[in-house]
Amino acid sequence: MGRKGSPRSPQAEGGSRAASPPSSSPPSPLWALPEELLLLICSYLDAQALGRLGQVCRRLRFLSSRDLLWRRIARGCLNSGFTQLGTDLAAGIPVKERVKVSQNWRHGRCRRETVLKWKCKQVAPFSSISLMPWMELDGEYLYLSQAENIQAYPLCPDGMGLQRHPQAIFSGHQEDVCRFVLVNSHIVSGGGDGNIVLHKIHGSYSVKFSAHEQEVNCVDFQGGLIVSGSRDRTAKVWSLSPGRVGQCLHTVQTEDRVWSIAISPLLSSFVTGTACCGHTSPLRIWDLESGQLLTCLGTDFHRGAGVLDVFYETPSLLLSCGYDTYIRYWDIRTSTRKCVQEWEEPHDSALYCIRSDKNHMIASGSSYYGVVRLWDKRQTQCLQSFHLSSPTSSPVYCLRFSTTHLYAALASALHVLDFTAP
């Protein structure tokens, strides 16, 4: 007799049915809303709530990462790449990432590194002097003056600092470069030899002309015009028009050594910062077309309160700093007699350089121990401090920053603060 198989029990059949996958749950009514309405709802969330929303699911993570939602938050953050007027200066970087890095700027979280070092300049067999480097920054290169030359160092594409060897060297001065500017792929520099040199970055074109009887302490270049200031107590306006390159259009007698100079974004005037020894006002605005004095800024400067750096944020908003240890914020629309805000350096040090993100953050460089300070315009006290020169003391001669890095040039080294990797 053949062996009979055992019949399947009803329990086994029931168990097989229980193991089948359950039917999917109905979709959330949230996804029935138009995307415009979802974005409107999310626009009421702050940064923390948006971050938590992005952890719910992939779809909400994609929605909550939209630049449209983070732009409003970013405009209230430090150094997020947005100006007061809402212009985006770092359009290639996701806004959410910029907001995240902005918190590191606010809390001083960064990685410090000395990326370049150089020796003091020998002037005699047993004597040397420190260099006074200047610096400009664009998206691909850092330009640094060292003695008579300006060197271009490529920035690493992965955001990890810069390469240690220059890719290009721009020369032409017989003495040290005092200051230079980088505008529209051109470098304009003033030197201790009294000359101004113009270089085209992508090419071999260069122009050199004698500008002042003494060293050219400062220059600026906008709209086909160069303005320069010198120790010889003059400021000059120069043409770069074809056939008139290097022709002096105006000579302004400032009665003082000129330490800083800047052309207004409207290209209608320029401001000079002087030593405040021969004239009571170290900040004066001049007409660019006629060379005539338009106005003086401030009335309460004491003798010797020279202005070492000036920076236009907008045609009517101007920052200044110098020997009297104050950062001053001027609004030419409201008053030229008194600044609208001021901040005092906590350790009573002169301020050599200043820059802002054109929104809420100011960075300043002090005259002792390589102190870089970050300021929030909405606060009265210094936000963060970084001591870069220890144990020896050195001024911060120049500083520049992007949304992720700050570069500071001291007497013998270039320091970088990386705020993406605290």
Task: Give a description of the structure.
Strands 1-30-29-28 form a 4-stranded antiparallel β-sheet, with no helix packed on it. With 422 residues, the chain is mostly beta strands. It is globular and about 85 Å long. It has helices at 10-18, 35-42, 47-53, 58-64, 67-74, 95-107, and strands at residues 111-117, 121-124, 127-129, 135-137, 141-146, 149-154, 168-170, 177-183, 186-191, 195-200, 206-210, 216-222, 225-230, 234-239, 247-253, 258-263, 269-274, 283-287, 293-296, 307-312, 317-322, 326-331, 341-344, 351-356, 361-366, 371-376, 382-387, 398-401, 405-409, 413-418. 12% of the residues lie in helices and 39% in strands. It starts with 9 loop residues before the first helix and ends with a strand. It has 6 helices and 30 strands.
